[in-house]
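User: Good morning. I'm curious how pyridoxal-5'-phosphate would be positioned relative to this chain. Could you predict the structure with it bound?
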Amino acid sequence: MLHTSYIEISRSALEHNLNFIRDFINENVLYSSVIKGNAYGHGIEIIVPLEEDLGVRHFSVFSADEAYRVKKISRANSAIMIMGMLDKEQLTWAIENDIEFFVFNWERLHHATTIANKLGKRAKIHVELETGMNRTGFPLNDLPHIAHYLKQNIKHLSFHGLCTHYAGAESIANYYRVKKQMRAFNRGIAKLKQLEIVPRLFHTACSAALLRYPATQMDMVRVGILQYGFFPSKEVLIDYLTKTKRKKDPLHRIISWKSSVMDIKHVKTGEFIGYGTSYFANTDMKIAIIPVGYGHGFSRSLSNQGRVLINGQMVNVIGMVNMNMMSVNICNTKGVKKGDEVVIIGKQGDMKLTVASFSDFSDQINYELLTRLPSDLPRITVV
Ligand SMILES: *Cc1c(COP(=O)(O)O)cnc(C)c1O
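Assistant: Good morning! Here's the predicted structure, ligand included:
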């Protein structure tokens, strides 16, 4: 193995999660798999073919570079949708390649029309409405003007979708704000119907919305975090467990992160371990050196805090996490040898280190921790 650590992706866990989500989605709702952020750190190149094998045919990304990566490896009949960044040059590529994209300002709408005209191809657009998140989207008041423009340019623009995004459906604290957004979006739908122009799809729901506000599912759901085996927040998980009278998180984690012991060292009482003075050996100690550090996505804030699994036991990180290495305390772990497997995220024997426990220590949310996993770590598929 050329790399000091690697990531395993479980096909069966992914299949389990997709089935769980499908049970939740109303009939005839299109499933769009959100794979921005390198598929939430799991790896676009590994997730897309696995999901295609499992029947997924629509993928949502943030930007043109991600769309390009999906295009390179996906099946001809898989659709790709860009929800965010796309500049003028990339628009040409997107339209040429039938990439769908969000349009949230007049500039992009005008460019899309001009380029589509030049290419003799229709641009597949999703008009994004500003309903209260105050990030991207046309104000509702623009709808009559937009409807008129779309009708005039029907030869160049294919009205694929009308969409919006909720500002925190994973937290009950945002209940009124989300409800207000839902009402605003519904006013948008009514307005379009009144103007006699409707898109192929209305879509608004992310993971939290599809679970907590089923009415948001409409014609398509854009699902990210759930498919990777995580509830969007503890609140959504607890809400789900309460409503279904279940006791256990029904999702399976699909990612594991593993490395191996690089070296073992004995340290005498009274010595400091690693950089500086953050860890003092009160007693004679045995430590293992792991070739993983903050440069690989193992946060420095896990210094003296993090844990990993070795020989089926949980061991503590001691001293500072370095750029490429960290030390763990193996005083109470018998028989550790150089080359032994180290689990940073995942299972070993009866023990498990979840991304959530990991996030708790480093004060990161699941989404953040996952997407920080370096894209150049090797990723392999396991059962
Ligand atoms: C990220 C994102 C989603 C998916 O969110 P999850 O909480 O991961 O399901 C859906 N829609 C948009 C516009 C997004 O940016």
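The chain has a mean pLDDT of 95. The two ends are 20 Å apart (CA to CA).
Let me know if you'd like a different ligand tried.
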